[in-house]
Amino acid sequence: VNNNYSQHTLESYARDLLIFELFLDHYNIKFESLNKLHISEYKGYLRTAQHSDDLDVLKMKLRNKKNDSTNTHKAKNDQEEEIMSEESSKNDDLDQETDLILGKALMTKVLQKSRSKASKRRGGDTDGLNSRSINRMLSSIRSFLGFLIEIDETVPIPPEAITMVKTEKRESHVAEFHELIKLIEAPDEYETKQKVKYRNRAILELLFSTGMRISELTNLDIEDLNYDPARKKIEDNKIYVYGKGKKQRYVYMTERAITFLERYLSSREDDFPALFIPYRGQRVNEIELDSIRISQRYVQSIIKRYRKLVGISIPTTPHSLRHGFATYLAEEGANPAAIQHLLGHESLQTTTRYVHSSDRFAEQTHQKFHPLKDKE
């Protein structure tokens, strides 16, 4: 918090260190006696999904603790017990606050017991976390040890003694351009409710038009656009977004995306600040107006549904639209540094991992540039 990390990063650190604490407890290891062999055992602990079982046990304990606390308070009736209850209540408030923090970290989707079918097909273990997830959790321990050194605390092993595991080499694929277009246009064909049709089409157009992250999209407010409600017109193609790690940048909309955004905004008859709002479900009943906005999970679910409806065989997610945005810009000859800026990456190396040429483009390149391309 003091180093101004984002809330998402803080929650990730909390979750990762909690799992490491569960490992130490599972094998009765004291942190002060931690060694390299223990770190190797921790990798196996994650690979075999033992952490998932231990998390289930912890969550059950937290639930039972909360129920026991409630039953205890109901049983106390006389004055003496009321005084004791008052003191106990103070402690319970602290316990409940701790439970909330832990619960928020535990419910992260990365802690699911098994990976998706698509993830299993890509290789690696089918039980626990894949190598990239394990490396991220090992990196959290490194950071924690570095923090202890920074505040002059004694550490059992130096951060650099924690080595990463070998990652699987895999090539990410992006759906063909015409397939992505079918996906983006799917709401107009498959949605019967006009408001949902207009909103979902605007979501997909905006994602592919700008290359923004799904979190950036769901956090947008109408005021982030230069929108004139009287004329029902968007006056500028730029949107100022707050990205990963609290970084800020401009993203740019195409005229096509602006057209469908204007259509969607013209259908709105509410005063909610969020750009994209739900029309049913629990979020509609939120007390705070700012909380009434679509969730990332919803965007993921509609893309999954449309992908099946239009018959795209390649796994496609909101992040795939971001990949496609970068890939097809590159195919048109865009400068890598410009793509880096549009994606909001600090490193150009990160950008190159996002720019994956389609099979069609690779074939065209082979036919055009191979030294023996001519029959003669």
UniProtKB/TrEMBL annotation:
GO BP annotations listed: DNA integration; DNA recombination
Biased composition, class Basic residues, residue ranges: 112-121
Stretches assigned to the Tyr recombinase domain: 170-367
Signal peptide limits: none
Domain annotation Core-binding (CB): ranges: 1-149
Record region (Disordered): 66-94, 112-132
PROSITE patterns: CB, TYR_RECOMBINASE
One Gene Ontology term of the molecular function aspect: DNA binding
Keywords: DNA integration, DNA recombination, DNA-binding
Alphabetized Gene3D superfamilies for the sequence: 1.10.150.130, Intergrase catalytic core
Xref: PANTHER family: PHAGE INTEGRASE-RELATED, TYROSINE RECOMBINASE XERC
Protein name (Swiss-Prot/TrEMBL): Tyrosine-type recombinase/integrase
Source species of the chain: Candidatus Dojkabacteria bacterium
